[in-house]
Structures are given as C-alpha cells and as structure tokens.
Amino acid sequence: MAGLLSAGAAVAPLDRIGAALWWRDNASSAPEAAMRKAAELLAGTDGELRVLARHIAALAAVEQGRVRQAHRHARLGLAAARRAQRWQLAAQLQLTLAWIELERGDVDASWANLVAAEPRLPAAEQGRAACLRGLLHCQGDQHREARAELTRALHSLRADDDRRWVANALMGRGLANMYSNRLVAAENDLSAAERVFAAGGQSARAAGCRHNRGCVAFRAGDLPRALRLFEEAVAAGLDVRSSPEALVDRAEALAAAGLAADARAVMEQAAERLAACGRAGRLADTRLALAGCALRVDDLPAAVQAANSARRLFRAQRRPAWAAVATAVAWQAKLRAGQCSRYALSAARRAASACAESGWIGLAAELRLTAGRSAARAGMRTAARKLFAMCAPLREAASAPPQHRALGWLAEALLAEQDDDLERLFEACQGGLRAVDSQLCDMVAFELRAHTAGLATELGDLAVGAALRTGDPELVLSWTERSRASALHRRALRPPVDSKLNSALVRLRSAVRETRSTRGPLRVVAGLEEQVRQRAMLVEGRTSGLPAPCGLGEVSGELGESALLSLCSHRGRLFAVSIVDGKARLHVLGPESSAHAQAARLRHLLSRQAAGTAPRAAPMFEHGARQAAEELQAQLLDPVLPVLGRERPLVVIPTGRLHVLPWAALPACRGRSITVVPSVRCWLRAALDARAADPAGTAVWIAGPGLDHAEREVRALRGAAGGRLLTGADATTEQVLSTVDGAAVAHIAAHGRFRDDQPLLSCLDLADGPLYAYDLDRLHRGPATVVLSACDVGRSAVGRGDQLSGLATTLLGRGTATVIASVVPVPDERTVDVMTSLHRSLSGGVAPAEALAAAQAEHGESGFVCLGYGGDR
Questions:
Q1: Predicted local confidence at residue 9, as pLDDT
Q2: What is the pLDDT of residue 11?
Q3: Contact 704, 751 (CB under 8 A)
C-alpha cells in the first residue's frame, strides 16, 4: 500500500524556534526545502534547534523514501534531546521513530518507541499516538483492533482539528477495512482521506489514497478500475521511486489479468528499489507477489522458494495473516508439483483455513480445490469431497467477487463429477461461466478479456470431458463453444476514445520510423511499446452482451450445402465434431502433440520455400512439405472425409496451434472452399456482419512503402474495380483508418509483421510508420471484407481456451465479416497474381472462400486463409 502518514501546510512564524517547529510540522509538504532547512539549522550551535533539525530531516527523508537516512536522523536527534533533557522533544522524536520503524518493518521496535513516547507526549499529540497504535495493529494483521483504535483516534483528532492526522487515520482504517473484506467501508474511508489530503495541499498523499482505492478495486475483482486508479495515482503525484510497494500492487493486478511475465519484471524492479532505500521490511510483500507470479507461469520451484522466503520474513515481522498467505502459496506450488502425501494435504488444509480466517477467501478456495484434485487423483475420495464441499458455498455468495463465485461453481462441478451426476455438473459449469462473464462485461481492453478467461477454460474443459464421455456430438460442440475464444464474443459498444493512447501510438510510430532510418537504439521503441500496452488496458466503457448459444438447427441452416468441422482437445487428445446435412458426428483424431508437430514442420518448410532455397535443396523441401501435409491430413481429415465428401465447402474451427495452419496445403483442401473461424458463434456473427454491409460501399486500395509490387498491385486492382486509392505519402495511419471505416472492401499491400510475444503490436507498414492492431480498435465498423496482401499477418497468438489475438482477429472484433490473409510468408511476386485472380472472382460475385481457393489453386499457392465468414456475395 502507498505510504500512511503526512504533515500539513501553513505560514512559517518569524522566531527561530517557531520557524523550526513550523518546518517540522510541514516537512512532508516540501521535503526538499525541509532538508535544506535542516542542513542550515545543523550548521548552528543551538542545541534545541539542532534537535529540531534532526526531526525535520527525518520527516523529510521518509517522505523521499530514504528510510535508512530517516532512521539515522531520528536516532541522532533522540540522543541529542535526551542529553539536553528536552523530554517533550524526545517523546515527539520517538513517536516519529516509531513510525520509521514501522516503515522499516520492525514492528517490535516500533511498539517499543511508541510505548516509551506516550507518557511525555503533549495532550494534543495523544490522538496521533492512538493513530499509530492502530496502524501497528493493522500491520500485525489485527484488523478488528486496528479499526477500533483508529476510530477512537479519529474522535480525538477531529476534536483537536488535526486534519492531517485525521487523513492519516482515515487511510489506515480504510486499509484495515480492506483487509477485513469490508470493501465499501474501505472505499469510503480512503475517498474521505483523499479529499482531506487534497484540501490540505498534500497532493502526493492524496495520490497515495487514490492508489489504495485501486487496491480495494483489485480485491473486489474489478481489474480495469484497479489499473485505472493505479495509473491516475501516478499521474496525480505518487512517486513510485519513494513508494516502490505501489509497483508491487500494480504488478499483482497485471498478474491476475494473466500478464505474469510483465508483472514479474515490475516486482523484481520494486524489490531492488525497496532494498536500495532501506525498506527491507516491505520485501516480504514483494517476495510473496513474486511467488504468485511464478505460480501463474508454472515455475513451481521458484514459487516455493519465494513463498518460503516471504513466510520467514512475515513471521519475523509478526504478521501471521500474511505468513499464512505465503504458506498457502507454497503448498499450492508443492501440490501442483506432485506432492500428495497425507501430511501435505493436511498442511494445505490448515493453510487454507488460516487464509480464510484472515479474509483471503479466494486464495483459500484455490488451495482447497488444488488439494482436493490431488486427493482425488491419489484415490482419497473422502478427503477430496471434504475439500470441495468447503468451497462450494461460495457459489451462493451474492456479495462475493465473480472469481470467488466461479471457484464455488467449479467446486460444485467437481463434486458432481465424483457423483457421476452429469446434469448437475453441466449446471455448475454453466453457473461458473456466467460468473466469469459478469467480470468480463466491463473489460473493454481486449488483452484483459483474453487473459482473464483462464477459469472459464478450466470450467469448459471439465464440461467438455464430461460431454465426451457421453459420446453426444451436439453436447460436445455446445460445451466447446461455451468456453472457446470467449474474448472475441464480446465487442466494445463504441470505439474507445483515449487521447493518451492515441498520442502514445503516434510517438511509437515516429520512434520506429526513426530507428529504421538511423538504426538507433531499440530500447526507446521498447519503452514506448510498453506505454502503449499499459495505456490500452485503461480504456473505459462496456462491451456488448454475449451472443446466445447456437443450436444444431441454426448452424445447419447457415451451413446449407457446406460442412463444418469443429476441433477440440482434451487431456492431450484431439477430437472433432462434424456437421453435414444437419447431422452431427463425433470423431477421435489421435494425439494433439503429433498434429502440432506436423503443423509446425509444414509451416517451417513452406516458410523456407518462400524465402528461396538452393536449386539442389528445393526438391527436398517440396517433398518434406508434401509429406507433412499428407500426415496432417491422415490425422485430421481422413477420419472425417467419408462424411465430408470431397467437394463440399468446409468451415473449420481449429484448436491450439492448428489455428495458424495453412489449410490449403492439405491435399483434400486444395481448390476447396475453406473458411477458418475462431468459433461457431464468431462465424454466425460474421455472417450477420456480411449481410448488414452496404453492397454499394466503397472499395479502398492501399499500398505501403518499401514493397516492390505493392503500388503496381493496388493500381491495377483499382483500375479494374474502382474505388479510393491511397499510396505513397497519402497512405498514413490516420488517412487509412478514416477511409476504410465502414468500407465494403479494403485491400492493403504492405510489409507486415506478426508479433507472437505482443500480438496486438502486430502491424502493417504505412507511410508514417506501423499501423498496429491497437489502432484498429478506433474503427467504428471494420470494412466488410479485408484483404491483407502482407506476409504472416493472418496469424494469431493462441492462449488458453483458444483465446486469439492479432491483426486479423482484431478486425473480426470490430465488425469485419471476412479477412483474407497469409499465415506463412508468401513471395511478393507470386502474391500479385493471387490477388488479381482473387479480386476478379470477388467482383464477379463469387464467395470469398471459394474465390480464394480458386486463386491459390490457379497459382500454386497455399499460404492464405479466409477468416471469419467465407460465404454469400
């Protein structure tokens, strides 16, 4: 949490002692000036002034985050006050020293100084001592006592009109309320403290309250609001250099959103800063957060090590509730690593109970679920049931965050699985998915939606496994659809308007262009990319409701003479549901790993062929690619070809790494109309988008720089079909976005780059620099059909639950019905011919998927795919 204490502001009196006392009371308002005044007073010989100078310096140093220096000044001042027998000054210094020891994490020393100071403090400062006592209770995880003590302190402080300490007490009580899960009361206290600090000119302290309100939002499960409040706090003056723990809070929110790698880097930075500024007492929190990050990325040894280190530090600081949290994280990692003795389960159960008693309900439920699954795998059915039953009541807790309710529904589903009660299992999984979805509706940022759906994947996988055991293909298709690509099923109700994000994108484009021309340092670009990514998570708004689940009749009606093939995986094996002529069938396709290996091999060989090979090696690459394609077909299509037939158009819903497979390379798919889509719901919605498009809409032809054939390609296409032409200096990001918004067709011939590490930073090169996937979110409505004549930009990064992100999927999310793009590199000179044939067919009214199939077959290409909806015209 951001820092707790503060001073106020007034006008300095003229006499030297009075002026020194004024500086002591206002050191927090202007720490740099206060430090200079302290140095001036220390240069003199007056004993009382030197004591006050040490006090001023200690308060200023704490405000600057230099706790080690503050501790030294306070101790020297205390020693000087005692030598001079200035007992009241000594008591006041000792009160400050108690605060500094609290910042350092030495609770015993803080209590000792507070108890020693109280008897000689003036009556006006007894309320401050009571406030500090409440903060110590809060630090020691005695939150009920902290609330009571801080409430008593507030009565005294308000009676004395001590506003700056009123704000301190309100902030402390707000944190005690938060840790007690009294989140509305916590928000009220922190908001009140923020107002008091702001009215007193304490902008940094007010910003600290804003940050802590972000912590309340995070605890309530509102990730977008938490991230926005953290960002606003920094903009309002919170200095993360002097309060590195603020970095940890933000990183924990990022980790909860699935961005564990980013969070881990921030936490390690915070740990270094805490150590550098003498605040080793806060390292325990950072180590615990690092353990949580390691757990999320399945780095189980690192999670155990960091959690054990945090637990030792918490115990040394006498913070039992936090020690219990660290113990729970350690056991979570150990159980997931395979430890499953009766002792391990018993220890995990005790750790979960300790967490629940301290208010960490979600963490307790997660540990109980992990322990229950471990017990079930080990055949300890009774122990597993007890653990699941302890979590199941969370599903009924109306005031609990959505994630907690989802955990309760997951526990209920696991109990139903043990009872072999499929109806109850499906009902529980449906309840859990509703809880997760209630959290996603306020997440406009696509990246947050994609990464936060992890629990939905777990619930969906449980239901899919049960559906597969029934052998009912309709049930299998229904449950794969409920959990896959869920982030794409929602759309922002309006394009996010964020001037700061747009400015960051402009700066990034400029930096990329400059780096390419001068070969300057890439770290500037990397920093700007991170700014864009962080800002994109802060966009506000709401998303559309989920499309209703689709039945077999609706899907069959839309398919007509086409066939559908929906792939899914469960426990390492691939399955498929086919729908042909209104009949659904279930097929077993074998190991997922072998399909992924052959798909990767095929992509690699096609990429090498596109890059050019030595004449002697060309036959070897051709043979290898043909062999990989045949083996993939043998696994994926041969079991279903008798049902699909050899001529029917095919709609494919892949899974995992098969989303980036060049399907036209498979023998049975050459010349066949193939549409690839993230889910059935996405396909049906794309069909509606296609029919809602204006048939008389504009065609836009765009050429980016540095591509030999681009301008010739788009000029020829525009000459044949008409429409708007953007080339050379006219093809800027702003011009392109405004022109393609709502267009019928947008054809972009440009260099493209797919970023597997940051898929929303995948881009197309335009005259003023890259156009990123983030830019496409500004479209009110994507063009009905987009053709990307650029290498590799049809690819998407694939996350858990087949969550897809990249340029193509961003366009589908903005209302584009059809995206035609490559998933492997394609030589520029061959692309021109494919594009010419494609648009000739499209102009003649041929459906996009059929037109692409014919164009690729004509020119011997296979790298392009038709994404979204490939029918009609």
A1: 39
A2: 44
A3: yes
Largest Cα separation within the chain, whole Å, is 100
What residue has token string 């340092």? Answer: 521
Residues in the chain: 873
Output b/e per residue, 622-647; b: 16+ Cβ within 10 A: eebbeebbbbbbebbbeebeebbeee
* 590: phi then psi, degrees, rounded to nearest 5: 95, -165
Strand order in the sheet with 785-789: 583-591, 573-580, 563-570, 650-653, 674-676, 864-868, 818-822, 785-789, 745-749, 699-703, 724-726
**Whole-number Å distance between alpha carbons of 648 and 269:** 57
Residues paired with 575 in a beta bridge: 568, 588
Residues 6+ apart with CB under 8 A from 324: 351, 354, 355, 357, 358, 360
Please list the alpha-helical segments (H only) found in 297-400.
Answer: 300-316, 320-336, 342-357, 361-377, 381-391
Place of tokens 């696991």: 414
Cα(729)–Cα(766) distance, rounded to whole angstroms?
A: 9
CA dist 341 → 326, 327, 348, 355 (Å): 20, 17, 11, 21
Per-residue confidence (pLDDT) for residue 825, from 0 to 100:
85
Question: What burial letters (b/e) apply to 241-256, b meaning 16+ CB within 10 Å?
Answer: ebbbbbbbbbbbbbbb
Q: What are the CA-CA distances from residue 461 to residues 402, 467, 476, 852 (Å)?
A: 19, 10, 10, 34
Mean pLDDT by 10 residues, the chain (873 residues): 44 70 84 90 87 91 86 93 91 92 85 92 90 91 92 92 91 93 94 93 90 92 87 88 83 79 81 72 84 88 93 88 93 93 93 90 93 94 94 88 90 95 95 84 64 78 95 94 74 67 90 79 83 81 67 90 94 94 93 94 86 75 89 92 85 94 94 94 91 86 89 90 92 95 94 90 93 91 92 86 88 93 84 92 93 94 93 72
Tokens of 665: 């390379």
- 626-638 per-position pLDDT tens digit: 999 999 999 999 9
- The model's pLDDT over 417-433, given as tens digits with 9 standing for 90+, comes to 999 999 999 999 999 98
Q: What's residue 6's pLDDT?
A: 43
pLDDT at 492: 64
Tell me how many degrees the CA angle 800-803-807 measures, rounded to the nearest 5. 140
Cβ proximity of 373 and 414 under 8 Å: yes
Cα–Cα–Cα angle for 118, 121, 126, rounded to 5 degrees: 70
Please state whether beta strands 650-653 and 674-676 pair in parallel, antiparallel, or not at all (unpaired): parallel
Coil, helix or strand at residue 160: coil
Question: Sign of the C-alpha dihedral, residues 440, 443, 449, 455?
Answer: negative
Contact at 8 Å (CB) between 285 and 248? Answer: yes
Would you state the pLDDT for residue 343? 93
Beta bridge partners of 410: none
pTM of the entire structure?
A: 0.81
Identify the bridge partners of residue 765 per DSSP, sorted by sequence position.
770
Report helix, strand or coil for 868.
Answer: strand
pLDDT for the residue 150: 95
Cβ 756 vs Cβ 797: under 8 Å:
yes
CA–CA distance, 77 with 73 (Å, rounded to integer): 6
Q: 146-159 burial, b if ≥16 CB within 10 A, otherwise e?
A: bbebbebbbebbee
Give the CA radius of gyration of the chain.
31
Cα 209 from Cα 232, distance rounded (Å): 11
Identify the CA nearest to 844 among candidates 720, 748, 698.
Answer: 720
Dig out the tokens for 417 from the structure: 């699985």
Q: What's the pLDDT score for residue 10?
A: 42
First to last CA, the chain: 58
DSSP helix/strand/coil, 791 = coil
